[in-house]
Write a structure and sequence with these properties.
This protein is of the alpha/beta class and 248 residues long. It has one domain (3-238). Helix content is 38%, strand content 15%. The protein is built from nine helices and nine strands. The protein has helices at 13-26, 41-50, 56-63, 99-108, 134-137, 149-159, 172-191, 202-208, 224-233; strands at 3-8, 31-36, 81-89, 110-111, 116-121, 141-142, 210-211, 214-215, 219-220. Helix 7 (172-191) packs across helix 9. It is globular.
């Protein structure tokens, strides 16, 4: 049986939210393996840049000897992995951040059945809870000075709807609202049209968040998981969605 490998930057928050969307949409129809890189995108960039032949799957196997309790990733071969998805934070204040590095990574990881497909949270995973309602979210931004771990975590918790603070409590309708909000905002950024359409080109989305290779200040808040869900399932993921302006 082919597996799908999901690689997260961190170990805790990302997996909590992913397990929430699993309950809402996947219904156990495929074998998923969850693994953490345990460092940021620019550290991964350095490792890959230093070794053109470095295989991402082998690197993750080395870092994650056992990901799921019932399966050891070290026992798997690359040909048993059908798809790879990566989820990382923008981290615009990281000392190793450059727009060029970001775009290079998105260009390299642009196909889930080859090297893998990369999705970015702007500015980080907590963007998923930096949400009050759809109309407000379409113009929600964050100052670059606030895009640091502890500061943004507090900011997103304070100004976001409490329904999204606990990943375990987000139901399917809540996820559908997040999907609609993030798709509309991503399309406004990339096409200047307020429309619902999957955003398959992550490079084009990243380019809207940069000016001359530096992150826009303020930065538009966007969450990777809702954009991934629309890319993975198509717009069927929005069936039976609540009113576009409704909150969770």
């Amino acid at each position: 049986m082919e597996r799908t490998l999901f690689i997260f930057e961190g170990e805790k928050a990302e997996k909590l939210y992913f397990k929430s969307l699993e309950r809402a949409f996947f219904h156990g129809q495929e074998n998923r393996i969850l693994a953490s890189f345990q460092n940021d995108l620019y550290e991964l960039y350095e490792q890959i840049s230093a070794d053109d032949d470095l295989d991402l799957f082998e690197l993750i196997k080395e870092l994650n000897p056992s990901t799921n309790k019932d399966e050891h990733i070290k026992e798997l071969r690359r040909d048993q992995i059908g798809q790879i998805y990566l989820f990382f934070d923008l981290e615009p204040n990281d000392e190793k951040f450059t727009g060029e590095n970001l775009l290079n990574m998105l260009g390299r990881f642009d196909n889930e059945t080859e090297h893998g497909k990369l999705f970015i949270s702007y500015p980080m995973i907590e963007a998923i809870r930096d949400f009050q309602d759809i109309d407000e979210y379409l113009v929600r931004t964050v100052a670059i000075s606030d895009c640091v771990g502890a500061r943004y975590k507090q900011l997103s918790a304070n100004r976001g709807n409490h329904a999204y603070r606990d990943a375990k409590k987000i139901d399917k309708q809540g996820w559908q609202i997040l999907i609609e909000a993030n798709l509309r905002k991503a399309n406004i950024l990339t096409t200047h049209k307020d429309t619902l359409a999957p955003v398959s080109n992550q490079v084009s989305l990243a380019l809207t968040q940069l000016t001359n290779g530096s992150p826009n200040d303020p930065l538009s808040v966007l969450s990777a998981f809702p954009i991934f869900l629309a890319d993975y399932f198509g717009l069927d993921v929005l069936k039976r969605v609540a009113s576009p302006t409704a909150g969770p």
